[in-house]
Design a protein that fits this description.
The protein is of the alpha/beta class and 354 residues long. The chain is built from eleven helices and 14 strands. A seven-stranded mixed β-sheet has the order 6-5-4-7-10-13-14, sandwiched between helices. It has a four-stranded mixed β-sheet with strand order 11-8-9-12, covered by helices on one side. The longest helix has 30 residues. The structure holds 5-S-methyl-1-O-phosphono-5-thio-D-ribulose.
Length: 354
């Protein structure tokens, strides 16, 4: 690994001296590695909305450090005025993206930390918040490692694996979720062949997944999204591993747009379709996939974003949902840090969320 290998950078971090949230600006990858130092609410909100930091677990960690960084700067003499301002900032950050439950999960955890310590001084509450954000960060690394250890039990030597979007290290604190079994298998010399869907329209598969797997020395082949059927039909794919942004109580799974199509193809070709989900992404309060809010994003991401010139007529209508829902009957198993859940998910998921 060279010293500027992308895997040597922390996707999300905290700068003690500046009291700043640090992120890699992922919109510039793979060409430029730039670390952003964020201390202002609007900059943190924009970084999440614009996908400078993205991927459900990484958004959660960024939100935890982000709200701490903002809380540290709140000037208040009493708890009520501190908490009123904290809540305002929390709700603002929470409005940046709707689908990944890790955002509100992390912010609610930080909120509970404030409430649990309301009898302490404001300075002490701030210290508790810093410790909680660091705990969320450290846990994410442990959780991803565990997902890798459970996931590798479903992989054999020489497997072809297909993944969609980026559920890699760049979407988490380390290892990734869908990539955690892949990295572990690679370390153990399994000789996997990984196919990374490019993931239109924001190209997380091309810009991020193929980049980080290639940097790790994994045998990765980039394909356009519409090539998945073709590589599956050729028998090159033995398993699909994807991440997710929210798992409903019945096992319906929201993930990057295009995931449900991959699951339907996997079923057609008899390929197991595995979803890797930290329990922080399982939302037992959301009954089914129909109850998950799906983010819609600007038309220009489809028409212009990665092109030198617009590639569609100026006035043409665009539909740009960022996520879709894969029905639970297409999901072979959901791999969590606490074990592997299988259908019926309404029972097995409850046992995973401890
Ligand atoms: O819009 P993004 O890039 O945040 O979408 C990311 C995904 O859909 C990932 O698959 C999901 O968040 C899981 S990341 C471990």
């Amino acid at each position: 690994m060279s010293s500027d290998n992308i895997l040597n950078y922390n996707t999300v971090d905290f700068d003690e001296e500046e009291c700043a949230l640090l992120i890699i600006d992922q919109t510039k990858l793979p060409n430029i590695t730039e670390i952003l130092h964020l201390t202002k609410a609007k900059d943190i909100w924009d970084a999440i909305y614009e996908l400078k930091v993205r991927g459900a677990p990484a958004i959660g960690v960024a939100a935890a450090y982000g709200i701490y960084v903002l809380a540290e700067r709140i000037e208040a003499d009493d708890f009520d005025s501190f908490y009123a301002e904290f809540k305002k900032q929390k709700e603002y950050l929470d409005s940046s993206r709707p689908t990944a439950v890790n955002l509100s999960w992390a912010l609610n955890r930080m909120d509970s930390c404030v409430q649990a310590n309301k009898d302490l001084s404001i300075a002490e509450i701030k210290q508790k918040l810093k410790a909680e954000a660091k705990a969320i960060h450290a846990e994410d690394t442990r959780v991803c490692k565990s997902i890798g250890e459970h996931g590798i039990t479903l992989i054999k030597q020489g497997f072809g694996v297909l993944t969609h979007c980026n559920a890699g290290q760049l979407a988490t604190s380390k290892y990734g979720t869908a990539t955690a079994p892949i990295y572990l298998a690679h370390e153990k010399g399994y000789n996997l062949r990984v196919f990374a869907d490019e993931t239109r329209p924001l190209l997380q598969g091309a810009r991020l997944t193929s980049y980080e797997l290639y940097a790790a020395g994994v045998d990765v082949t980039l394909i356009c999204d519409n090539m998945a059927s073709s590589v599956m039909k050729k028998g090159w794919v033995d398993a699909v591993f994807v991440g997710c942004d929210r798992v409903a109580a019945n096992g319906d799974v929201a993930n990057k747009i295009g995931t449900s199509g991959v699951a339907i193809l996997a079923k057609r070709y008899g390929i197991p379709f595995y979803v890797c989900a930290p329990t922080s992404t399982i939302d037992l309060n959301t009954p089914t996939g129909d109850d998950i809010k799906i983010e819609e994003r600007p038309a220009d991401e489809v028409k212009k974003k990665w092109y030198e010139k617009p590639m569609a007529p100026e006035g043409v209508k665009v539909y740009n949902p960022a996520f879709d829902v894969t029905d639970n009957d297409l999901v072979t198993a959901i791999i969590t840090e606490n074990g592997i859940a299988r259908a019926p998910y309404s029972e097995s998921l409850k046992k995973m969320v401890r």
